[in-house]
Amino acid sequence: MKSKWSICSNCGGDGHCLPDGLRGEMRSEDWDADSLDTLVSGGYDVPCAVCEGTGKVRGINFVFTLVVRDRAYGGAEEGGWWFDCGEPVDHPFNRGFTSRGEARAYDFQLGEDGELDDALEELNEGRAELSSVTCEGVYDFMILGADDEGKAKPFPEFRPHYE
């Protein structure tokens, strides 16, 4: 998957900005004329620490998200076949990440605390298992690819076909 890039919100894409000590509300009367000219012309700017002077940062490529997983009928070949599918659902645990590794670390952290198990137990209470014909989907947390807006994509991206 190609990485997506965004304009750095810290420097606005310029690659440089004022150091932290000079940020915030400034009054022109606190500066002498030469210092004010230097400030306005960018003389005090330093390379942006967020984008390291490039003006861009990696965007969201992966989303740790709650999904409703289900099984869909694929076709009658070989006596009938099914495939897993899922739709992302809003949840407070949902987060976007630039790499799959960061998303896995977040998943691991929530799993260690037991928060994921507790949330899934509550969400799936009274629901039939995925293998049941009466199942209308089960909730699960997954790491999915992100669309151009940083939102999780439903899966599969393309409907599978029998070969």
Helix-strand makeup class: alpha+beta
The topology string of helices and strands comes to EEHEEEEEHHE
Q: Strand tally, please?
A: 8
Strand content: 25-35%
Number of domains: 2
Number of helices: 3
Large-scale geometry: elongated
Query: What helical percentage do the residues reach?
Result: 10-25%
Our Rg estimate from Cα atoms comes to: 24 Å
Instruction: Calculate the mean pLDDT score and round it.
Output: 83
Task: Measure the end-to-end span.
Answer: 25 Å
Report the biggest beta sheet as strand number plus sense, adding barrel if it closes: 4 strands, antiparallel
Low-confidence stretches: none
Describe what you observe in this structure.
By secondary structure, the chain is an alpha+beta fold. The chain folds into 2 domains: 5-57, no CATH class; 60-145, no CATH class. Helix content is 19%, strand content 27%. The strands form 3 sheets. Strands 5, 6, 7 and 8 form a 4-stranded antiparallel β-sheet that branches.
